[in-house]
Write a structure and sequence with these properties.
Distance between the termini: 31 Å
Mean pLDDT: 96
Number of strands: 12
Order of helices and strands: HHEEHEHEHEHEHEHHHEHEEHEHEH
Bound molecules: uridine-diphosphate-N-acetylglucosamine, fructose -6-phosphate
Strand order of the largest sheet: 4-3-5-6-7
Strand content: 15-25%
Length: 365
């Protein structure tokens, strides 16, 4: 079943041009979006007081990547909940809320308990899942199957990118009654149609990421700085590295750098800075300058052709990625980090598909 690949995680990373195509198949129609599973509920969602995203691990990170464009395209306030934390706090959920549950397996215990809680509180409950017939799919009022195909590697890869794309289509569908943002929606839809070919292009960085991995093999820790659309990329990249390569890694909001993390910076600690083109670009340029002035060991991810704009004197390593619509850039940017985590794991001699202590579906609390 792995075909020409050595591991499922590797196969699933390289499968993403195809899995993203199947996520979108039949759903981008006549310049608009048609999600059969949400059609009847769009009016209710448009009237809701807020959207609450709920999930665990990678699925939470996918929702975090979706938050900025859901807010932008719908105008509805979005809050984020890690499922276990919502349960621990018994946080407020109201009838006027739309609670969106994100889960690859659709069987994660914490997510399902949070679903029961939101149902009891009368919220409209929407599922985003890869598993038709799962408990999540059956218990939610409506939802979207991401159709990424079966994911076997314990580390979630192709489900993450398909979840983001499914939520982008959801945001487009909810916002489709807003005339003033038609131009923006058209640009995102054309970005979605170009996405599989951009993913094929970024996958060509495989050898470069293997080489980067070999330079990091003995590091004790790896930081990843992102902001805006790519805050989630930082968290998800770091989660991949820690869960499969068994290396300490933290994703951080670059805007928080001066409020603590800066103290860690020295010439040994590798730091990945995500600085692709979007409204936050100049802020990331200044983050890079501040890290370099403290002799930080930087690896900068930037848009194609921007190497000298992010790193004028050549003192950092640069990963150049193809550009897509800014809000879809997280789908591209996570891929080099998935490849890095994969190669780091193989080079360090650990089990890629069955990381220590982890299970594919966490059905206990
Ligand atoms: C559906 C069919 C698909 C078919 C297409 C043709 C299924 C599972 N899907 O896809 O095979 O090609 O019509 O038009 O038969 N749902 C939830 N919670 C979730 C996920 C989904 O309640 O977490 C519900 C949806 O609201 C919907 C149903 O499950 O009622 C199917 O969802 P989805 O597969 O996303 O719908 P379509 O894309 O229309
Ligand atoms: C990370 C990973 C986990 C899952 C989490 C939620 O690669 O796989 O963090 O994302 O256990 O699982 P689902 O999405 O099935 O609810």
């Amino acid at each position: 079943k792995k075909g020409s690949y050595d591991h499922f995680m590797q196969k699933e990373i390289h499968e993403q041009p195809h899995s993203l195509t199947t996520t979108m198949r039949g759903r981008l129609k006549d310049g608009g979006v048609l999600l059969g599973g949400l059609k009847e509920h769009l009016k209710t969602i448009r009237r809701c007081r807020r959207v609450v995203f709920i999930g665990c691990g990678t699925s939470y990170n996918a929702a975090l990547a979706a938050r900025p464009f859901v807010e932008e395209l719908t105008g509805i306030p979005v809050t984020m909940e890690v499922a276990s934390d919502l349960l621990d706090r018994q946080g407020p959920i109201y009838r006027e809320d739309t609670a969106v549950f994100v889960s690859q397996s659709g069987e994660t215990a914490d997510t399902l308990l949070a679903l029961d809680y939101a149902l009891e509180n009368g919220a409209l409950c929407v599922g985003i899942t890869n598993t038709v017939g799962s408990t999540l799919s059956r218990k939610t009022h409506c939802g979207v199957h991401i159709n990424a195909g079966c994911e076997i590697g314990v580390a979630s890869t192709k489900a993450y990118t398909s979840q983001i794309v499914a939520m982008a289509m959801m945001a487009l569908a909810i916002g489709s009654d807003q005339i003033s943002s038609q131009g923006r929606r058209n640009a995102i839809i054309s970005g979605l149609t170009r996405l599989p070919s951009c993913v094929s292009e970024v996958l060509k960085l495989d050898a470069e990421m293997k080489e980067l991995a070999s330079s990091l093999i003995d590091s004790e820790s790896l930081l990843v700085f992102g902001r805006g659309y790519n805050y989630a990329t930082a968290l998800e990249g770091a989660l991949k590295v820690k869960e499969v390569a068994l290396m300490h890694s933290e994703g951080m909001l670059a805007g928080e750098m001066k409020h603590g993390p800066l103290a860690l910076v020295d010439e040994n600690l590798p730091i990945i800075v995500i600085a692709t083109r979007d409204a936050c670009f100049s802020k990331q340029q200044s983050v890079i300058q501040q890290l370099l002035s403290r002799k930080g060991r930087l690896i900068v991810m930037c848009s194609k052709g921007d190497a000298s704009a992010v790193c004028p004197n050549g003192s950092c390593r640069v990963i150049e990625v193809p550009g897509v619509a800014d809000c879809l850039q997280p789908v591209i940017n996570i891929i080099p980090l998935q490849l890095l985590a994969y190669h780091l794991t193989v080079l360090r001699g650990f089990d890629v598909d069955q990381p220590r202590n982890l299970a594919k579906s966490v059905t206990t609390q």
